[in-house]
């Protein structure tokens, strides 16, 4: 098949990368490229380029390829690990971003950032709110934003907080909550930690809408409309997947139990993206219903 549009997805084997791949694949109108370090990684309908994004040699080897869009989903997302292994975090989240955005050629670039660039003291942050990352992971993601702005004008920086799942399951928030409840374990849910969780399938759809639109380049908060505590989010998982017998302790987050500092209220004001992308359902319930469908058909 001859496609006239191409998209490169970094971190295509990851939670968001796979959701983005699945979305673009079913559109059937894009030539899809993906980058993974895993030599055995294959995906139907995608050309997988094997390499490490921290390798200048690798990126130079694919430099002659021109893409219509690059969606940079790769990162080291283990927040506690980033706090301890700072070199690894810097290389994966800042240096790799510098190489990608300075070496690879594309009409549009998308960088996935995080709500953790804010310190969570007030919440309801806009794109212009005061930035104060608490953890080293969050600091590297913010440094990544700087690298993007420095290298290319035609960029979208999307600050978000996402949930989803990998096959086989890994350790992200939904995966952890689901697995613990399935194994009949009692878990602790933080009642004083707030966010606007967005399902990776929702974010994938929004990314496509951004690419095909001509909305202004820059920073966008891509979050759901509603604020929810992490405790209530876990309760939603319990309800949605019918773990009626399991118990979730409603407790307050205690920083002493965590290696890396965490922010308490990273809720984002999503007005800018809602005005730019009209007629999209930014509700948590819509994301959960997509999750339910994807999870049962996995
Ligand atoms: N998960 C979350 O809760 C949130 C995530 N984000 C952001 O969303 C984005 C996607 O996160 P998510 O999908 O959860 O992450 P995952 O860990 O699921 O996927 C990231 C992928 O990046 C790839 N990768 C990491 N380092 C390298 C490297 N040096 N070279 C090549 N590939 C590399 C890995 O693929 P492989 O091993 O195949 O090479 C991995 O599968 C990230 O930018 C993250 O910061 C933002 C807010 C919340
Ligand atoms: C929310 C929560 C987590 N936990 C435990 C289990 C969970 O795996 C671990 C970490 O929680 P979280 O996944 O919510 O927190 P964290 O690892 O800080 O998640 C972050 O991920 C990175 C990639 C981001 O970019 C951020 O936006 C942020 O959501 O803490 C609880 O015990 N109870 C809870 O209520």
From TrEMBL:
Keywords of the record: Membrane, NADP, Oxidoreductase, Transmembrane, Transmembrane helix
Segments passing through the bilayer: 6-24
Free-text function comment from the UniProt entry: Catalyzes the reduction of dTDP-6-deoxy-L-lyxo-4-hexulose to yield dTDP-L-rhamnose.
Entry protein name: dTDP-4-dehydrorhamnose reductase
The protein's Enzyme Commission number: 1.1.1.133
Pathway(s) annotated for this protein in UniProt: Carbohydrate biosynthesis; dTDP-L-rhamnose biosynthesis
Catalysed reactions, semicolon-separated: dTDP-beta-L-rhamnose + NADP(+) = dTDP-4-dehydro-beta-L-rhamnose + NADPH + H(+)
Secretion signal span: none
Family that this chain belongs to: Belongs to the dTDP-4-dehydrorhamnose reductase family.
Matches recorded under SUPFAM superfamilies: NAD(P)-binding Rossmann-fold domains
Keyword Ubl conjugation assigned: no
Source organism: Flavobacterium ammoniigenes
All residue ranges annotated as the RmlD-like substrate binding domain in the record: 6-275
């Amino acid at each position: 098949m001859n496609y006239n549009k191409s998209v490169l997805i970094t971190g295509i084997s990851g939670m968001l990368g796979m959701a983005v791949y699945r979305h673009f694949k079913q559109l059937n109108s894009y030539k899809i490229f993906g980058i993974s370090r895993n030599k055995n990684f294959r995906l139907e309908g995608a050309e997988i380029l094997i390499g490490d994004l921290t390798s200048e040699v690798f990126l130079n080897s694919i430099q002659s390829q021109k893409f219509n869009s690059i969606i940079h989903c790769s990162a080291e997302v283990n927040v506690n690990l980033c706090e301890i292994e700072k070199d690894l975090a810097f290389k994966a989240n800042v240096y790799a971003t510098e190489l990608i955005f300075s070496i690879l050629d594309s009409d549009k670039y998308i960088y996935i950032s995080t709500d953790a660039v804010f310190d969570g003291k007030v919440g309801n942050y806009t794109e212009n709110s005061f930035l104060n990352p608490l953890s080293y992971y969050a600091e590297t993601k913010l440094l990544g934003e700087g690298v993007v702005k420095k290298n290319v004008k035609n960029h979208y920086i999307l600050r978000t907080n996402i949930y989803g799942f990998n096959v086989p399951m890994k350790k992200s928030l939904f995966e952890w909550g689901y697995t613990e409840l399935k194994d009949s374990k009692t878990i602790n849910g933080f009642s004083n930690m707030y966010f606007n969780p967005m399902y990776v399938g929702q974010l994938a759809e929004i990314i496509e809408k951004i690419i095909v639109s001509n909305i202004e380049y820059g920073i966008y908060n891509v979050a759901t409309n509603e604020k929810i505590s992490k405790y209530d989010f876990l309760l939603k998982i319990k309800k949605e997947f019918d773990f009626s017998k399991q118990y979730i302790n409603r407790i307050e987050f205690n920083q002493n139990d965590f290696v890396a500092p965490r922010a308490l209220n990273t809720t984002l004001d999503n007005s800018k993206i809602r005005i730019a992308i009209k007629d999209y359902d930014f509700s948590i319930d819509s994301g959960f219903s997509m999750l339910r469908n994807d999870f049962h058909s996995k």
